[in-house]
Design brief:
Blueprint lengths: L1 E6 L2 E6 L2 E3 L5 E3 L5 H24 L2 H21 L9 H15 L6 H25 L4 H10 L1
Length: about 150
């Protein structure tokens, strides 16, 4: 049983690699060409890791909050380098000062941001391990077994 596979734009869950039709003929639910199956599995890995990251980071509000906290953290770091703010437009300078005020208030000192980076690192490491494993496979049987173990 394959728990998840992305074939084209479709995501299939809990499917058998093949089934036997009424005439006793084996009908494949997955590509049978090893190169096509390998490509499908790489696409599946990408989809799976993106779903894991979304679940780990949370909804769009948490993602947007993490992003804004990261931007404020970068502004704080840039400010520590004493940049020449005279090159900024008035609007840019205003936004930069507001980011620095948020940093001073502790906005960038965030467990949410830290946790988001931990989740990204964990899931991307998982992806890299699986992708390296998949890269070394070429036989259809090995690729099908990889799909079933995913």
């Amino acid at each position: 049983m394959i728990s998840v596979i992305k074939i084209g734009d479709n995501i299939y869950t809990n499917i058998e690699p093949y089934y036997i039709d009424k005439r006793g003929k084996k009908i494949w639910n997955i590509p049978t060409d090893p190169a096509a199956l390998k490509n499908t599995l790489f696409e599946t890995l990408g989809w799976v890791v993106s779903q894991r990251i979304v679940r780990a980071i949370g909804d769009a509000n948490k993602k947007d909050t993490s992003t804004s906290k990261a931007v404020v953290l970068l502004a704080k770091l840039v400010d520590s380098l004493s940049p020449d703010a005279s090159v900024l437009t008035e609007t840019e300078r205003s936004a930069y000062e507001k980011m620095l005020a948020l940093a001073e208030a502790g906005y960038s000192d965030s467990a949410l941001l830290d946790g988001a980076f931990d989740a990204l690192a964990e899931h991307l490491a998982w992806y890299a391990d699986r992708a390296a494993e998949l890269e070394g496979l070429s036989a259809f049987e090995d690729l099908a077994a990889f799909a079933e173990a995913l």
